[in-house]
């Protein structure tokens, strides 16, 4: 590890064939940081933008990156990324100031030398040994007596070099505001108390088979559901990503697929000289409970005039930085802005795999009705063995692919079974007939001729 680096030019269409050689694990590949405008089925999230690639299967990822930069690809199934299934994806600009031969790729990953990622996720391992022991650079690193070879970069004095560091850990007049609290209320990894339940089909192509009902969640209690946030086409979306309430324990790196977003403001807690944190009071978690005693599943601005984000003190609407991943600080919040102009179903989640797998994720159902034109013909579908899964991704969603109902499937199986039996009987009759004819012929040849 890591995997081979992929280097192309911006606006160059690329097709990448991914074949799953694993024996008993599915896989998908996400192209981290690529907005996939016009290519929503190529985002690479199992059961969101596609069905997983099963052992022995091959999937063709075809898309066209619009912007040059340092990106990366990685598995989006379970903890495969932490096990080393990742690599650099570099998009060169047509007139890059630094020639390619003077560019170097530096991929940085935390590594635990005692336990693999799956053991850390599921095994009963003591907390003190769960933290990473060292840092790997391009898959190489040392620990104590483990004197493994290190990554070496060769440069010459006077050369101008570019080191690409990759950490593997049109305006609308309508605006929508969403508060999303990332944390562990009641001990559950969740967003707004909704513990993400992965769909068992591809949400992009089979929306009628995805149940996104989260009505069992309340302001203070958690629930399991396929959490989906509906975004209206062409609208400006303001999201307040917060880390408050009883579930606030650590900071979270939050990644959004399908977009880069403007970071309008980042608010941190106050920290005293003795190391105590005072959380921000800009946000109100509950009408009846103080923030420190609330799960903060239904937050709002304490000052209602801030619902117009232009009035928020310290807001930057002039030259805001663009990101696809940002750390939401413990005890604070981040205000981001996107324009809903990339139809599809996009994943948003904590990029700490353990948190994501346990439920800190949601789907952005963006202008879904307009995404059907960008779904390639023949994209594989998959089906759930859970008969109770039903419901629609949104009120305006409609199935993008033809699928059979249970009754139709049973009839089809019956017809196929009858035809199979009929064919077998026909073959049996033909074989019996030939043998009977052959025996009769032999008997005639053995009879003596009369003189």
TrEMBL record:
Gene3D superfamilies in the record: Cupredoxins - blue copper proteins
Top-rank taxon: Eukaryota
GO BP terms, alphabetized: iron ion transport
Domain Plastocyanin-like per the UniProt entry, residue ranges: 1-94, 211-366
Transmembrane parts of this sequence: 411-432
Record flagged with keyword Lipid biosynthesis: no
Signal sequence annotation: none
Keywords, alphabetical: Copper, Membrane, Metal-binding, Oxidoreductase, Transmembrane, Transmembrane helix
Cellular component, GO, one term: plasma membrane
InterPro entries assigned to the protein according to its UniProt record, in alphabetical order: Cu-oxidase-like_N, Cu-oxidase_C, Cu-oxidase_fam, Cu_oxidase_CS, Cu_oxidase_Cu_BS, Cupredoxin
Molecular function as annotated in GO: copper ion binding; oxidoreductase activity
Family: Belongs to the multicopper oxidase family.
Protein name per its UniProtKB record: Uncharacterized protein
Species name: Mytilus coruscus
